[in-house]
UniProtKB/TrEMBL annotation:
Keywords tagged on the record: ATP-binding, Kinase, Magnesium, Metal-binding, Nucleotide-binding, Thiamine biosynthesis, Transferase
Known catalytic reactions: thiamine phosphate + ATP = thiamine diphosphate + ADP
Residues bound to Mg(2+) 3: D27, D72, D214
Lineage: Bacteria, Pseudomonadati, Pseudomonadota, Gammaproteobacteria, Lysobacterales
Chain sites annotated for binding Mg(2+) 5: D217
Name this polypeptide is given: Thiamine-monophosphate kinase
Gene name of the encoded protein: thiL
GO terms, biological process: thiamine biosynthetic process; thiamine diphosphate biosynthetic process
Residues bound to ATP: G122, D123, R147, S216
UniProt domain PurM-like C-terminal: residue ranges: 151-308
Amino acid sequence: MEFRLIDRIRERTAQGREDVRLGIGDDAALVAPPAGQEVAIAIDTMVEGVHFPQGIAPADIGWKSLAVNLSDLAAMGATPSWALLALTLPRQPVEQVQSFIDGYAEGFAQLAQSYRLALIGGDTTRGMLTVSVAVHGFVPPGQALTRAGARAGDVVLVTGTLGDAAAGLRLLQAGARVAEGDGRAAYLIERLHRPTPRVKAGLALRGRATACIDVSDGLLADLGHVCEASALGAEIDASLLPRSSMLLGAFDETMTRDLALSGGDDYELCFTVPPSLVAEVQGDLARLGCGATRIGRMVEGTGVRVRDEQGQWLETTHRGWDHFA
Ligand code: ADP
Ligand code: MG
């Protein structure tokens, strides 16, 4: 049975790539990285009941489990190439397992195809529903974006909008069933289940961003990582936080601000660039469709400080993050 399952996955995720010499089916995959490139590697695990609620569509799990990994590659400025998939599946009737696999593979493949990413192997075991995806990507030597490297005076920007996914989670937790015609809730929940990894934005930032991270735990926490790695502080303006009209329509102003500051799961890129490059970078990311908004700047010191709409410093210290964890 295990083999049939693996065949189902292989058929549904088939992706021809020259550099895959041996894919699913042997004891290990064999790949040929392009000469002279560095390989960026990341892995992320999602456990049912922890990282996604019970009852979420298998296709959404497939999409998101790959998206969060592609987001890590995006934050490094790497071009995705290959993935491995470790699946832990509960003991269930075979039809149920098959329908999960089919849905999962469909969601995974939708995203994989748009990057010509090949699934080259994995592992399948029994236990609590857990999906672990590892990805590989290429980056020219020395050009990877990292969390270190920001300089005092650099401008802090973020792609897309913040807080949507956390808002979607709140709506789900409050028992919002996506009523027909409730486009707002549907949009926010879709942002939670089907995040868009900013891969092209990451590539466009190569050679220009001085530091970059993807926003998975919330802006305060993740920009905090950039501060630590770059041995600097950051000052941001709450009034500048990019928020979708759907978010603004669903919650009051203070709530949208807190969700944008502390809500996780957005998978936008937060990055720093020297002031002289801001306009050019914003133009390029606008053409890529996600846009980029300047939200503050890097300063000497430590930690992230947030100014409210009146110019007063907000009490933050990741309080919001705990609140939404
Ligand atoms: P082994 O016992 O040698 O580790 P497996 O029976 O676990 O081999 O796997 C057989 C082949 O199927 C391997 O190529 C492996 O990479 C692949 N594979 C197993 N599980 C998965 C999965 N969930 N997704 C993709 N490939 C898988
Ligand atoms: Mg083996």
